[in-house]
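Batch manifest, entry 17 of 40.
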Amino acid sequence: MFPPWIINSLNMKISMKKISAIILIAAVFLGACSTQCPLKGERQDCQTAKVAQQRKIAVQMFTFKNYTFEESVPWLAKNGVRGLGITAGQYLSKKFPKLRFGPKMDAQQRKWFKDFVKQNNCWIASFGVTNPKDAKEVEELCAFAKEMGVPLILTESRPELLPAWEKSCQKYGVKMAIHNHASNSGNNYYNPKIVMDMIKPYKNIGACPDNGHWSRSGIDPVYGYKALSGKIFAVHIKDQAEYGNIKNQCVPFGEGVLDMEGMLAELDRQGFDGPFIIEYEAKWNDNLGDVLKCARYLESH
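Output type: structure tokens
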């Protein structure tokens, strides 16, 4: 309903120009009312819901390594999860025995992949973790990523290759992010300060921290995100049954011991707008239900 002052104005003999102006003001007034937060000052809850709706949610496809890419993508798409973290750790299709994603794919295989992703109305969040051995392989990967629509390559490359990464990322219009495993992985990338010191000088190189591996290494994830503030391009996100246990114990978000709300709050504080990539390394043969629980948690927090 229009406020009384507008109705009274309409009863007066005024020009059509004035009537149009009044109607426009009323529309703005009503629109503003309809977009306000719910009852009793729930402004913070409203803002949280707004941020959650905007989260870019993806799944690291290594989660479904016991199934092919062709089998598992439709499971996610049918449940509204369309972001894909591609991995060479998963076979692509029974049509192409033993084929994994990477630059060795031929033209027919590349076309099949791109068509399949498009048919399922999905988008690619990243590719990796992959570790080229030299600058030539770095450039090959970046050229391949550009062709396949991959915006971000995840790696645990040696520090001396970072200049080659920066050069090739700039050339092909893609990004690279340093990923971390746990403290027993053979490198020190589980330490966010070390990673930050490495990547800080580069425009096209950032981080894709895995908070589950931080937890396994005894590193608080909120602290880790703060240490990498401004350089986080994507996150591999997990909840764990225990903190500080080197054994990986994934559980649905909100059911473990990690401070999921604190982590999301810190990323929101930073203005992080990259993909939240769910990697669920448990129940390998029957984990879709838990993956979807994680996705719904991200949508509502």
